[in-house]
């Protein structure tokens, strides 16, 4: 029972030191963006495993910036806008590198699936933003950003020739993302329709 009590003050001191530092949520967001650009470059050069690892680290930064913003009180409206904007760019740029890989191998179906995945990811975000502009909370559905990042990361780490296992999960990961983003968009559209229907409580 004593270990947790000792660990808690250490964690609190570390948190307070971080809050009192000059680190800003925007700096974390930009770090995540740079890492995802590096990940895209690695994927472009067919270093899928390394690209997947860097993409994971960059995505973790994207998760931390919002939490750090709330925890530190350093967040700004522009910072929230920048965070959301960079999230879309990061996902899109890595998927662009994946599409280039499939195009290089003449896999037109997979290229089309990547395009649909990008469209689906954008629509998942748009349906949430548009609903919230109408006063409806709309965060549900299968393909949240965390889920999409996880699926794409697994696909990259276990791409053909990228890992120690003789498997190819990149293309299946893209197809799964297409399916889940499509379902999520429909889920959110129907949720907003129910919420805005006369006589229906949100």
Q: Can you put this structure into words, describing what you see?
A:
This protein has 202 residues and is mostly helical. The protein has one domain: Four Helix Bundle (Hemerythrin (Met), subunit A). Helix 2 runs parallel beside helix 4 and helix 3 runs antiparallel to helix 6. The longest helix is centred in the middle third of the chain and has 28 residues. The termini are far apart.
Structural descriptors:
7 helices, flat, 0% strand, mainly alpha, Four Helix Bundle (Hemerythrin (Met), subunit A), 202 residues
Instruction: Please mark out the parts with pLDDT under 50 across 5 or more consecutive residues, or reply none.
Output: none
- Major sheet description: none
Count of β-strands: 0
SSE order? HHHHHHH
Approximate shape: flat
Helix fraction by DSSP (H/I, runs of at least 4): over 70%
Using the coordinates shown, work out and report the CATH topology. Answer: Four Helix Bundle (Hemerythrin (Met), subunit A)
In whole angstroms, how far apart are the ends? Answer: 44 Å
> How many whole angstroms does the radius of gyration measure?
19 Å
CATH architecture: Up-down Bundle
CATH class: Mainly Alpha
The CATH superfamily label reads CDP-alcohol phosphotransferase transmembrane (TM) domain
Instruction: Figure out the total of helices.
Output: 7
Average pLDDT taken over every residue: 86
Structural class: mainly alpha
């Amino acid at each position: 029972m004593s270990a947790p009590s000792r660990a808690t003050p250490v964690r609190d001191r570390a948190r307070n030191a971080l809050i009192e530092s000059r680190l800003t949520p925007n700096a974390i967001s930009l770090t995540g963006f740079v890492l995802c650009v590096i990940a895209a470059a690695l994927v472009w050069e067919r270093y899928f495993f390394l690209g997947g690892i860097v993409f994971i680290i960059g995505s973790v930064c994207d998760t931390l910036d919002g939490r750090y913003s709330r925890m530190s009180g350093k967040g700004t409206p522009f910072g929230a806008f920048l965070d959301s904007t960079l999230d879309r760019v990061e996902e899109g740029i890595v998927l662009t590198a994946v599409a280039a890989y499939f195009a290089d191998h003449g896999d037109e179906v997979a290229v089309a699936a990547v395009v649909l995945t990008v469209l689906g990811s954008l629509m998942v975000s748009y349906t949430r933003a548009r609903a919230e502009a109408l006063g409806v909370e709309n965060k549900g559905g299968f393909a949240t950003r965390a889920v999409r990042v996880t699926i794409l990361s697994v696909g990259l780490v276990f791409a053909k020739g990228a890992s120690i296992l003789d498997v190819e999960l990149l293309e299946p990961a893209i197809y799964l993302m297409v399916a889940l983003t499509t379902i999520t968009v429909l889920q959110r559209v129907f949720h907003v329709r129910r919420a805005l229907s006369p006589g229906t409580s949100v």
